[in-house]
Prior knowledge:
Blueprint: E1 6-13, H1 16-26, E2 30-37, E3 40-49, E4 58-63, E5 76-84, H2 87-100, E6 104-110, E7 113-119, E8 125-130, E9 156-164, H3 167-177, E10 181-186, E11 196-200, E12 209-214, E13 228-235, H4 238-250, E14 259-260, E15 264-270, E16 276-284, H5 309-315
Parallel strand pairs: 1-4, 5-8, 9-12, 13-16
Antiparallel strand pairs: 1-13, 2-3, 3-4, 5-9, 6-7, 7-8, 10-11, 11-12, 14-15, 15-16
Amino acid sequence: MELLGLHHVSILTGKAEKNYEFYTKILGLRLVKKTVNQDNTESYHLFYADAEGTPGTEVTFFDIPGLGHSYRGTSDISTVSLRVKTTDALLFWNERFTQLGIQHDSIVKRAGRETLAFRDFEGTRLILVADNGETGVSAGIPWKRDDIPVEHAIIGLGPVTLTVSIAEPTIGILTEVMGFRFVSSYPSLEGEYPDILVFATGEGGSGAEVHIEPRPDLPRARIGRGGVHHVAFRVPNEDEYHLWAQRLKEHRIASSGKVERYYFKALYFREPNGILFELSTDTPGFATDEPLETMGQKLALPPFLEPKREEIEANLRPLELI
Length: 322
């Protein structure tokens, strides 16, 4: 069994309309699924991805109006990266962010790659990372927009950074249970703090990495709007999914048990520092209940929620995404 890389990240938003505008009209991602949080059907769940909703390109949001701020700290998925093809693409985005008034930093190297850090309107800490021909897990298919040249478009998820008070327990889960391997380290850009440690799975590359940032000086994070709820990792098929469920049991790791999300199957568990991990299957995907060409245009409900559509729609606030 081998995890292929990152599957998706799920983030909290307090304003789905503005979230949609930022991630589609500014970042150029495609809304591939407008559905509900299956654990709270009064809340929307929006999925943004590449042109085809490819696993490893998905950034999802739970819409919770009135949600409070996030507070940075440990036990936190502190940054999410998005891949682009080249440093020229970073230069394009640097100029675009400047023109649109998006908070961003300068282009700097992280783990040997050129990167550009920026924030969305709710303070989510995001990083664009340039592949520059690096081998590893394949990128996605850019969603075409007139204002973003296809060669500069976002093509998938890059590394996530986990900020923890003590690194060793998290490293143990990654390497001894999940099959990650240590790749390298690089200096913190925050000051005189311990080096950030890089771990990879599958074919490696930026779409298959977790970066561990030890920060014993920080308090525990408090997640609110703009905070990352969980990170999911790719399981290639249902057969291996069942084996992963058994593996967690064998290691006596408390988990959600098998969860049917319809678009994928999921297992949830917390690593020792309290960060929520998910193992998600690549199959069957988002085109299973909608034509590829029109994904995301209507409220989609999995078959087990479809009989409650009238009730669910009555309890959802109107959401106009234009």
